[in-house]
Amino acid sequence: IKKIAVMTSGGDSPGMNAAIRSVARTCAYYNIECAGIYRGYEGMIEGDFKELTARNVKGLINKGGTVLKSARSKEFRTKEGRQKAYDALVAANVDALVVVGGDGTFTGALIFNQEFGFPVMGIPGTIDNDIFGTSHTLGYDTALNTVVEVIDKIRDTASSHNRLFFVEVMGRDAGHIALNVGVGAGAEEILIPEEDLGLERLLESLRRSKLSGKSSSIVVVAEGDKIGKNVFELKDYVEENMTEYEVRVSVLGHMQRGGSPSCFDRVLASRMGVKAVESLLEGKSNYMVGLLSDTIQLTPLEQAVKGKSKINEELIRVSDIMTT
Ligand code: F6P
């Protein structure tokens, strides 16, 4: 292997830039070339590449988003699109690929590898933490810190006005963000897709906390929660059934995906980048690098795509105890 290309794809997440930097610097360390691919698979199809050197990735470690940009490519879903991408990589003398992204990105990489035998390595980058084979995806820790900081601020208003706030957080179909920030910010209730609390129990729990002397409450709601009502409908439902609270809704949205990565994400990105390049140089392919028991380990890409990240049951129990 003489040249490795790196790209970011799917939803951006803090730490992606640090991963690009790490891949480029590791390539430089081993005296091989590195190319950055712009706009994920879309740029791959168009041959939109840029040479990455140890020096031109400076200043990236603390930057949110991705300087290589990200896109969801429709054309790469077609055989013709993938053929174009392969031709562009070959024309640029690229021998192997590091893809930073989530499920969709890895599925694309797997198909590409099956069709052309092109060596691929995945780095999990998403704030959702919904990837099997790693305890942490890149950007997850930063998102947790961002959201906790915001909920602390919302709590100021909640307690000044004796209000109940429903705070909706991201996570797609997973409740990792909601559960962790709920515990971290001391929420009174946490609604996650992995556990259906039910509307009645939610009301009961809110009544109980009111009776126990609480004048304000924060309920963290995962966007993928399955309680059957969205946050605005939840607000109406609670207002109809409880007169004790003035209710407000705050949907945090994309601010959760931005910002400078935490130290944890910067270090994780650096470790993952090194492992991804070194594994390719050892002749390995079709794996995802992940953090397991504080070591960087490889999981077959197929398993990473098919497996389900598990919610932390112990943390659910802790949150139940903390909300009494
Ligand atoms: O996967 C990251 C994520 O931010 C999810 O939490 C969210 O459901 C989704 O992406 C939003 O996607 P988009 O940026 O396309 O609206």
Using only C-alpha atoms, the radius of gyration works out to: 22 Å
Q: Hetero groups bound? A: 6-O-phosphono-beta-D-fructofuranose
Tally of separate helices: 11
**Which sequence of strands runs across the widest sheet?**
3-2-1-4-5-10-11
- Number of E-type strands: 11
Pairing-aware structural class of the strands and helices? Answer: alpha/beta
Mean pLDDT: 96
Indicate the overall shape.
elongated
The profile of the biggest β sheet is: 7 strands, mixed
Percent helix range? 40-55%
Structural account:
It catalyses: beta-D-fructose 6-phosphate + ATP = beta-D-fructose 1,6-bisphosphate + ADP + H(+). Homotetramer. With 324 residues, this protein is α/β, with parallel strands linked by helices. Strand 10 and strand 11 form a beta hairpin. 6-O-phosphono-beta-D-fructofuranose (F6P) binds next to loops. 6-O-phosphono-beta-D-fructofuranose binds next to loops.
What's the layout of helices and strands?
Elements: E1 3-8, H1 16-29, E2 33-37, H2 40-46, E3 49-51, H3 79-91, E4 96-101, H4 103-116, E5 120-124, H5 140-160, E6 163-169, H6 176-184, E7 189-191, H7 199-211, E8 217-222, H8 231-241, E9 246-251, H9 263-281, E10 287-292, E11 295-300, H10 301-306, H11 313-322
Parallel strand pairs: 1-2, 1-4, 4-5, 5-10, 6-8, 6-9, 7-8
Antiparallel strand pairs: 2-3, 10-11
Helix pairs in contact: 1-9, 2-3, 5-6, 6-11
Bound molecules: 6-O-phosphono-beta-D-fructofuranose (F6P).
Essential attributes:
11 helices, binds 6-O-phosphono-beta-D-fructofuranose, 7-stranded mixed sheet, 4-stranded parallel sheet, single chain, alpha/beta, 324 residues, elongated
